[in-house]
Amino acid sequence: MSANNPTPPAYVFASPIGFHVKDVRQYLSQHPTPVSSDPQRLQWTSQESQLSLSRMFQGPSGHTPGTIVLTNLFVYNKTRDIDRICPSCHRIYRVGEGPRDYQSFQDFIDRINVDTGVEEKIRLEQELSEACSGVCFNALGDGEWDDVADQEELDSLTGLARDHGFMLRRAKPEEENATGIKVVWEKLNV
User: Fold this and answer.
1) Contact partners, residue 56, CB within 8 Å, separation at least 6
2) Confidence band, pLDDT 50/70/90 cuts, at residue 1
3) What's the rounded Cα separation, in Å, for the pair 165 and 147?
4) Distant-in-sequence, close-in-space partners of 112: CB < 8 Å, separation ≥ 6
5) Is the Cα dihedral 54, 13, 101, 35 positive or negative?
6) Which of 23, 52, 57, 118 could be cross-linked to 11 through a Cys-Cys bond (beta carbons 3.0 to 4.6 Å apart)?
7) Residue 77 in 3-state DSSP?
8) Distance CA 69, CA 175 (A)
9) Which of 31, 134, 53 lies closest to 86 in space, CA to CA?
10) In 3-state terms, what secondary structure has residue 146?
């Protein structure tokens, strides 16, 4: 990896809407983004909160690697001021940042502020739900694709995926159990 033109680490991949984390555990160990100084955010780092969250995210058959990932993402997201990892598609984003196709990993790293063109409603939804888009928010609730509140957004993202050689799809149960991912940006072999 060159200092002037870094490539994404092996546990990060690019899609038409930004960069996604393939291995959340490895990403979190390699990218300890500074924790907020906001006392409301710091409460999520306490041992008591960790125990409560562990119980909250535990599935009917106990913890799976996927539920552990979701717990870790929840804590990561709640303890940062603007940096987030979407719990549905694992896209790395900042609150207020809409889908964006970066020219390079360096462009992604160098981004200074979030997209000021994102509507305040989207910014608020991202802050509250941690999902990067309406499609991902819907997937968190285990809704069907047809239940997406904004069909136009789903059509737009599906078209964007197709135009860039990707397929946007729901995760298979085994993928979700292993990684916690719910929405997959899969590179097609064309």
Assistant:
1) 71
2) very low
3) 25
4) none
5) positive
6) 23
7) helix
8) 12
9) 134
10) helix
Phi/psi for 168 (5° steps) reads -95, 125
Q: Which residues pair with 92 in a beta bridge?
A: 85
The residues, any chain, with a CB within 8 Å of residue 24's CB and separated by 6 or more, are 69, 72, 73, 85, 90, 179, 180
Beta pairing class for 183-187 and 18-21: unpaired
Decide the pairing of beta strands 166-170 and 183-187: antiparallel
3-class secondary structure, 92: strand
Q: What is the pTM of this model?
A: 0.81
Sign of CA dihedral 153, 154, 158, 159: negative
SS3 78: helix
pLDDT in tens, 5-40: 688 999 999 999 899 999 998 998 887 766 788 888
Please enumerate in sequence order all residues whose Cβ is within 8 A of that of 15, keeping only pairs 6 or more positions apart, or say none: 91, 161, 164, 166, 185, 187
- What stretch of H or E contains 96? none
Task: For tokens 């979407």, name the residue.
Answer: 86
Cα–Cα distance measured from residue 180 to residue 177, given in angstroms and rounded to the nearest whole number: 6
